[in-house]
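User: Please predict the structure of the protein below. I'd like the answer in structure-token form so I can feed it into my own downstream comparison script.

Assistant: Understood. Taking the following sequence of 278 residues as input:
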Amino acid sequence: MRFPFIIVLLIVSCFSFSEVFAQDLQVLTEAGNEEKANAATLNFGADIMSRYIWRGMDFGNSPAIQPNIYLSWRGLNVGAWGSYSFAPYQAMVNNTVSKNMGNYTEMDMYVSYTYKWFTLMFFDFFIPNGLDPNYTTIQRYQYFNYDYKTTGHTFEVSLTFTGPQKFPLKVFVGTLVYGDDKAKDTLGHFNDVNKNNYSTYIELAYPVSFQKIIDLNFFIGGTPFAGSWYGPKAGIINVGLTAKRTIPITKSYGIPVQASLIANPASQKLFLVFGITF
């Protein structure tokens, strides 16, 4: 049995009246800015994507709307994220029979904390229509079912390192530690309820700015273990480039757009994805 590893590194003089008055104004301004910086902020929005591609895998084979809402305070983030496809998709049962899986849906919750260069995150994936059509118990559709053997939830613990501005390399390591990440049984079904895969994903990413208008992000990710959420073999599953920019609509408002070229060498697939953020 493989066990996850998580590496956590939580590493006076006298003045004239006018000078004192100016100093008081500066103190008040700094205090006001500090108060704003320490205040909690609530953010929400949505992306419309031509495809939902996650870690080199296509979820839903359809355009999707992906709403989000999150609360931020002093490095702490608590949020919810979802994806809802516009059309149904098909999946293979034991690589022989095509099954209608309906419209792909996903509802996730997360909490993270950032300290300096490190972000520790707990993520709850909930996918009621499943990653594999072999495993279809009614309990999987029940959101508040957290039973290890029948839940549709999958919990991931991850650690992200983000380098300084001079070298902003990002390193992500995430391991699925509980829930619907089951090993295969003797028939090849992903429903051996007594075994967890501890599927692990590692990604390196590096952002650059192109002509101060377009933000580029180069990334490469893979899994060190075979027979997991990410495929039957260890290897590179997610490599590509994402370009983002904001299209100005008025002097004070613009619409962020993005395009990604993504390859999955393990599955021999290539994706070109476009998205709009509101």
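That's the full token string. Confidence is low (pLDDT under 50) at residues 1-31.
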